[in-house]
Predict the structure.
Amino acid sequence: MKTMTIGQLARQADVGVETVRFYERRGLIEDPPRRDSGYRQYPPETVDRLRFIRRAKKLGFSLEEIGELLLLRSHPTESREQARAKAQAKIADIDRRLADLSRMRSVLSYLAEACAHGTDTEPCPILMALDGREGNNP
């Protein structure tokens, strides 16, 4: 088994060295053994683990959730239902955020339209809404 330094690991996993250290501190990757010189010796499977973490982050999972998924990953035959439940919970969270973003877009569109039809002597409806005045509260 060929081990690698933190720099080699970071390059192969396409992350920064500080990211590797951060994930170590968070317990997402194990502290590797060290050479007599003090350099860390990462096993090759750490690259796969870092790539797993990156992909999970891109799908919106928090570091805590990723830690849970990594535990499930080590027991694949027992974890299918739990992993599916975590994915469904993430989908529900994304749906809530999309609804919030849609509401924010609607309010801002309304305010921008109101602003476009006003005069320079009238107060800005956007600023008034942000101040909590008028019926345009976001």
